[in-house]
Amino acid sequence: MTEHTMQLTHWLETGAADTTRDIRAFAFNLFELGPNQPGKFAIEWIGADQYDKKNPDWACEEVWSSSPRVLTLPVSLTGETWESCGAGVKAALVEAIAALPADHVLKGGLPVALGGEQMDLALIQVGNGK
Predict the structure, then answer these.
(1) pLDDT, position 96
(2) 26 vs 5, 6, 34, CA distance in Å?
(3) What was the pLDDT predicted at 128?
(4) Contact of 28 with 43, CB cutoff 8 Å
(5) Alpha-carbon distance 82 to 31, whole Å?
(6) Are the beta carbons of 17 and 67 closer than 8 angstroms?
């Protein structure tokens, strides 16, 4: 497991407290940080009370967020562009989720998606959303 995957796994383990039964899907949102920040990109993790594979706005219906909500990502993971960020974070998230315990909320059969300011929301884990 890489250092980046270990960092994400730790964030996912500690941030999953107080999830609600209202969650039908999870979304990870990438965004660009402003100048003078310790990295170029950060990620937030939310739970939504609906899921619609035909409408990516489902992720706007937030009913839960991780604590801490935001994780600043190292440039060594994200690179400097949206393309490199999306690819690097997707690979690290898939590996981090696989490393979680079987009873973790992200392994409960719900859809999990990754998106961002400059990238479309895309499923990284298919689920039934029920």
Answers:
(1) 95
(2) 18, 20, 25
(3) 60
(4) yes
(5) 9
(6) yes
For tokens 């489902």, the residue is: 58
**In the prediction, which pLDDT does 39 show?**
87
The token pair at 128 is 């039934």
> What would the two tokens of residue 125 be?
């884990």
pLDDT score recorded for residue 89: 96
Give the model confidence (pLDDT) of 62-81 as tens digits. 999 999 999 999 999 999 99
116 sits in which H/E element:
strand 112-116
Per the CB < 8 A criterion, the answer to whether 44 and 32 are in contact is no
Mark the ranges of the chain whose per-residue pLDDT is less than 50: none
DSSP 43-87: EEEEEES---TT-GGGGG-EEEEEEEEEEEEPHHHH-SSHHHHHH
Contacts 24+ apart (CB under 8 A), 94-97: 94/124, 94/125, 95/1, 95/2, 95/5, 96/5, 96/8, 96/9, 96/12, 97/12, 97/124, 97/125
